[in-house]
Predict the 3D structure of the following.
Amino acid sequence: MVPGIVERVYAGVGQTSGSSRDQRERSPGYEMSEVKTILLSNSRPIAAQLFCTLLCWISLQAAAPTPQSHFGHPIGQDRSSLEWSKVVSYFNLLAKSSDRVRIVEYGKSTLGRPMIAAIISSPANLKRLDRLQAIQHQLADPRRTSEAEALKLISEGKTVVLITCSVHSTEVASTHTAVEFGYRMATENRAKVNTILDNVVILLAPSINPDGVDIVTNWYRKTLGTPFEGTSPPELYQKYVGHDNNRDWYIFSQAETRAVVSQLHNRWHPQIVYDVHQQGANASRMFLPPWLDPIEPNVDPVIAQQSNMLGMTMATDLMAAGRKGVVVNAIYDFWTPARHYQSYHGGIRVLSESASARLSTPVTVRPEQITPTAQGYNPRERSWNYLEPWLGGEWRLRDIIDDQLICFESLLYTAAARREEFLRNFYRVNKRNSERRDPYAFVISSQQRDPDATRRLLETLRFGDVEIESAREAFQIGTRQYPAGSYVVRMQQPFSGFAKTLLERQQYPDLRLYPGGPPRRPYDVTAHTLPLLMGVEVDIAVDQFPANLAPAAAFKVGYSGEAPRRALPASDGASWRRVNDAWRSGIPVWRNLASGDFFVGASKPASAEPLKQPRIALYKSHQPSMDEGWTRWILEQFGWVYESAPNAVIRAGSLRAKYDVIVFPDQSANSIHEGYRQGQMPEPYIGGLGREGAEALRRFAEEGGRLVFLNDSTEYALEHLNLPVRNILQGISNREFYCPGSLLNVRLEPGSPLGLGLPSEFTIWNEQSPVWELEESAKAVLRYSQSPVLASGWLLGEGYLAGKPALADVPVGSGRVILFGMRPQYRGQSYLTLKLLFNALVM
């Protein structure tokens, strides 16, 4: 019967048996001659219109290029790699050949590559994308959408799922997976696929770090067939921040982050964001939620529970497909918003972490190489959250892709099958946030010590879709007066949880591996209080207050101090940009050495001394350092002129003739001194500073140069420069002292030029940072408070820090060594302590 034949032809298009990789790469369905024979051999009449429509549809689908035809190899082939331009051209070809796919270029990467997303859904949905996007916006703001209206919108809307791939570019598989998955969605007609297409709008970003795709691909191809095949490149795979690009989801510093957030997250308000990652090779094959504790308290419980549900469903589908080594509720917690943007915007973030190969080179893991312990489970033993251990064997790129394909389909089918629930919960979560009353608001005065940092804070909140109002006239809360123009962030808005978590102090729970035992390590850091990091005064208004407020159009912040006429206040970050602009233009710069304020111009102001532009070098090891990249980014943002100084430049000596100051980023002493050993990297990348470099640095300081060491690099200075300083935390166990990324209280010692422009008391970033015992010649610039030391986050062993130096100035010959027991430029966020670093560059 003709209807049966038509149904069979339709169902056959794009189907694969799953038993052969070659079959998966073939063009889908019947050949055109087969279709014609089937239709013409049937004796019953077929409507001409149906016949022509069917033939046109099949011709269109047959034209979809297979990944193999485009890339020249099957997806997942051992030792294969993809270059970004071919990934982009492939998705553009898919969009031309399929009415299920549209491509949008939503931004440019740091190095100028196009950033693309494939919008995949049914042809009917793609024709009404504007309407579906409008529904998302209406559901995102329950203040403007009643319950009755929401019910109608939910019945009409579709679940929006954003899938982001290869933010970490050595985790190569997900871009390959995206290519194959895009092809399947464009061509297959299985029941599950059609259910997904009808009920879901997929935003598939094949990489949100395209520069890294090419950096890793170029290195991999260069080293294929050598002993270094499968190694990571000897450079950051994002120009400035490398692996930290996945920690940029609330400061929005990098071009890639800003494009993804502004053009995908904030335009589409996805109900689900699936972030696809890889992990080490010697434990589980795949991690999925539920997450470990703690869950950040501003994440709505419904968001966390839906994440648990999705992760467990994906884990079930993996195991049902015969895949072993799936772990849940382990390793990764649900704390920092640096990794969970959408969780504060009504949506669900799901993370998967696949075991890695050596890029695209297979690995063989022996049973004895399986890690004996891991956070939350034992990779060698069966447990409730690791029911079928993977105990060794061969592991390939294709294995990772197969697992990820199962996860993609599992998540999307759940998103389709439970469409109404996801849309309803999205609306309800945003409604609950819009009704928040504890606190009522955060208030930011328009007069601040650092207007530049205040503007940056306000811009960060606004970029994260937070509504900010300004006061048309002065107002009062309790005894506190606020001038006109001050800013108010009321909590009665859909994304108030995002604002709240960034503006309040964190109280991380005291979690131990067992009662009385060592601390349970958080996956990342424990504090993210932007007012403390930036040095901005932000007040909490517990109760409602009267004020004449209107939406803030622009952010105008004044200086709260009394700087002399023509002066640029030392506490205002914008002053440093003005100073660097003047130097570039050849205009003299002067500084009052008592207040720290700057003057720009030809005439010498009273009580000011000339400030010479420093010749700055930033140490750059062959072992990539994210902190080095962050330092570069900060220097460039504020207009500093600097040079990168690799090992060879420093070992060559004669440094004083070229530089006034050399900065060492947060990096281990061993990495600086020894670098890569023989056999780890090709010859040009072997070695560190060695004894020759240490001697050159010592001479540089003795001849009047300044050496600035940040955080862990201070250990190099202590070990190799013969300084009268000892790190008192050396050898202390984490049972006694533990500070995994927190904000701590310090006080400024008077008299040091390093403290110009800073208040007498403030907070600094501590991440297992050193603390010193100083001999008489060394001077403490900052000391930790006596009590309390902790301002935000988690700290064990406060007594080891109380009253001890956090920043030291050590004279060496005619020069000095400055030891920062902190990261003063931490992830581009700590605008307050940047002034300490900048003062070190010019003192």
Q: What stands out?
A: The longest strand covers residues 740-748. The chain has five domains: 2-60, 64-433, 436-559, 573-610, 616-842.
